[in-house]
Description:
The chain has 5 domains: 1-102, Ubiquitin-like (UB roll); 113-232 and 368-432, FAD/NAD(P)-binding domain, CATH 3.50.50.60; 258-363, FAD/NAD(P)-binding domain (3-Layer(bba) Sandwich); 450-584, no CATH class; 602-694, Arc Repressor Mutant, subunit A, CATH 1.10.10. Helices cover 21% and strands 25% of the residues.
Amino acid sequence: MDDIKKHPILDIQKRKKISFIFNGEKLIGFEGMVISSALFLNKIKIFGHHIKDNSPQGIFCANGQCAQCNVIVNSIPVKACMTILKEGMRIESCDGLPELPAEDNEVNVSNAEVVEIEVLIIGAGPAGLSATKILGEHKVKVILVDDKGKLGGKLVLQTHKFFGSQKDVYAGKRGIDIAKILSNSIEANSNVQIWLNSVCLAVFSDGLVGILKNNKEYVLIKPKFLFIATGAREKQLVFPGNTLPGVYGAGAFQTLVNRDLIKAADKIFIIGGGNVGLIAGYHAIQAGIEVVGLIEALPQCTGYKVHENKLRRLGVPIYTRHVIISANGKKNVESTTIAEIDDNSKVISGSEKTYACDTILIAVGLNPVNELYQKAKDFEFKVWEAGDAQEIAEASAAIFTGKIEALKILKEIGIEFSENISELEESANLMKTKPPQPIKTEIKFKEEGIYPVFYCNQEIPCNPCTTVCEHEQIETIDDLITQLPYFKNEKECIGCGKCVAVCPGLAVVLIDYRKDRNNLLVTFPFELTEDKLEKGQKVIVVSNDEELGTFEIHRARILKDYPKTQLVTIKLPSKIAKQAVAIKLFQTKFNEPIDLYQKTLTDDDTIVCRCERVSVGEVRKWIRSGVKDFNELKALTKVGMGACGGKTCTPLIERIFREEGIAIEDIIHGTKRPLFIEVPMGIFANAKNKNEEL
């Protein structure tokens, strides 16, 4: 079974095994996991086949936004990524249309309950939790709704330490721990009702919001105030093979690996050099998965430089000015072909290279999940939005915006508070700032005593190292959170190592001249093995550019406050010590390009609408014939009529319009579907049928 049995950050608890049937075969899963993860656990990545062209279907978003992972349970189609596995469950592939029963079963129907509440919050990620905390503390009655079984949103997938302010957004702590802190702050509040495994289906013109509560009961909520914190969905790309099982978003990968502890791949290739792609690569390495390479179309990665450096130090090849040409394979991903592009973003002929991999992660940005907010505005709700639904930014910014918008609701209600909204907005805007160009810094080594050396060279908002120093010897220029830190040296450093352990970018080392000025003791952070490193064990010391040699560990320790980060001290010659920035356990193994026959693929072969299997060529044909109305295009081709309701394909089709010389303002946009998530019709009548009790 492909479960993760050891992890350097996540505590692996023993899980109860349960059995289930898939396509007639008895398999084993773990209690509490969703069906899709149970199938991956058993190395099954093809869940069914599309009725139109028999193309293999597998996981895609892992977030309930599409229906790529649909399977049949007890004759009912369900989303494998959202449906909890149960003992003895009989699951079948979606191959063609399921047969309808010979006659309808008798059902009992009832009207939906209407629940009135002061504030309804949709989304229990960092923004939703932050808002709920503020409102609950001010005795405002809140219902918090989330479609997952656990509070925290994407925080529960994040094993890395966060940037920002330690005081305001828990910088220096891992996302999984921040989720617990925020969750604990609201769970005991009697003013807050928490509805997990509950999906917001629609916002209605009469002021009601339809909720599928606990995936069983349809409830209508009438809120005085509506708060939308629904996060973001990942952008996708159009390229040949883009719908093969094994091509999916980085968020889906993190869900499988970090939430459900599934070793979802052996070799991955990452498309996109923003923070999402860089972090996903690091998470893969922590889970024992090889990262074959990462490409970025721009001249440099757009994510934080410290995230990029972590991958480079571990030997991950990063190809800038490169794009994906195709995903290759018959039934699932077997390799990917990439190529270099010129200054005009045109592929340079002859630069194509193919690499073997079984998974391709798409990490090319995010789009706000804001359709509920837009509909609520149309219907004149008193509605607020925060987090990625408001503006795509880091989770630290979402914590701020959740708090800010909650305070605005308090102001609307007439409840007094002490916080200054303008100051909070300034901090939020700082957190949202795109990372500037790295700065060329020159480290000046004071060849005596012991002190920290900072290898961060990008002015991003981050201050944990300045706050953990007990002697207050680490500062930034003018005390600004975006300035690079430095050691004041007004008091002697005691070598406690807290600044090394807390740094989110793993960009601080401790250098010690006290015993031998020619052979220095250098302390590095390390979080890539769950086993404690021992004195005498050999590791490889690296700079940002190369391996510097193999050396024995002088000392390894773990601080109580940072139990998942090892502080590893190595004795190094002075010259090497001044270049050393990190350690690793294994030498880099670079993957060479492989020879693979590539058939010529055109727009007619490349899918833009995954749900209805509509090609780029077909869409382009109708645009060239004069179609500028998305609704007309929908009627002609069925694009946007599938289960996801156009959430994935609409931005891609808008790009095709632009490529054909048609400005976005000249397009007639499609009518939004009243229901944003598909649901069985019987839900609206609260129809009770034993076959629907999964």
